[in-house]
Each structure stands twice: as C-alpha cells, then as structure tokens.
Amino acid sequence: SCSCVKWATNLITGDTILFAGFSAGNISAFLLRDKVLQAVSSLPLGSPVKCLDIHQNLAVVGCADGGLRVATFTCAGRLKTEPRLWKNVNGGASPGISSVCIRKLSGGDGGEVAKHAGIKQFLNDGTLLCSIGAENGNVTIYEMDNNCI
C-alpha cells in the first residue's frame, strides 16, 4: 500500500513530480504531464516506508526499521541507486520513523529561527536541518551537510 506522497517541482523545467513511498519498502517517482502520471523510476529501500520529504534533488525517507534513507534524483525525477542509510537515528531502540522534514536554514530569518530554537547558527549554505519524529514520540534534529549525502 502507498504510505506517503509528496509533490516536487523541477525549478529548471517546471515539471511536476510526484514521489510516493510504499509499505513494500520502495519509493517511486511519477512525472505529471498533460494531467497524466507517468512512472519514471522506483528504488528499493529494504524497509517499509513511513514518511518522506523532498528538498531540491534529495528524497529523505523515514522507514519502519528506524533508518533514515537519503536518495538523490535527476531533474526528470529519475531516482539514483544506492541511497545513503543512517541507522538508529532515534537511539539504540531504533523506533520507526513516523515523520521527517528537511529544510535549509542559513542566514536571514532561518538564522533567527535556529537561534531561538537553541540550534547553532548555520553558516554553510550547503547545510540542511532535518527533523525526525519517531513512533515512540521522540523528535530528533540533525544537521546534514550536502557533502555527506
């Protein structure tokens, strides 16, 4: 079954892409053209997908095994192979990830938000802030650098 969906817009071509996560353990990308969804690609992740978020060319996926997967995709929505896996992002008990959100926070209002939230100022434009909600109620915030993805 489909567990989550997220729309993305290609800023270069203007194409609209739908990403969908499935309980079978894969994510798929579909291109919306002339009011018809066309399958573009699918990527197996090895664990049921619970949630996902999209930022630029990154698909950040939370799975039932407590692992966070990050996959990149092309302008056309084609998912690249070998997603990066971070295990046990919510601690040793590794509860499943029920929600994920990734955003760039650097300079301007983002810096003020980070300061008021007690998070260090992000100076590197390649730094992203990833918030992860777990099935046990924990919320974890990670700093992610584009170079490590």
Molecular structure report:
The protein is about 5% helix and about 50% strand. With about 150 residues, it is mainly beta. A 4-stranded antiparallel sheet has the order 1-2-3-4, with no helix packed on it. The relative contact order is 0.15.
Keyphrases for this structure?
149 residues, mainly beta, four-stranded antiparallel sheet, 6% helix, globular
Topology:
Elements: E1 2-9, E2 16-22, E3 26-33, E4 36-44, E5 49-55, E6 58-63, E7 68-72, E8 84-86, E9 97-104, H1 108-116, E10 127-134, E11 139-145
Antiparallel strand pairs: 1-2, 2-3, 3-4, 5-6, 6-7, 7-8, 9-10, 10-11
Which class best fits the helix and strand makeup?
mainly beta
Total beta-strand segments: 11
Gap between N and C termini: 28 Å
- Biggest beta sheet attributes: 4 strands, antiparallel
The main sheet orders its strands as: 1-2-3-4
Strand content: over 45%
Order of helices and strands: EEEEEEEEEHEE
Task: Give the proportion of residues in helices.
Answer: under 10%
- Outline the low-pLDDT stretches: 109-124
The Cα radius of gyration reads: 16 Å
Give the overall pLDDT as a whole number: 84
Count helical runs: 1
General form: globular
Brief synopsis:
The protein is mainly beta and 149 residues long. It has one helix and eleven strands; from the N terminus they run βββββββββαββ.
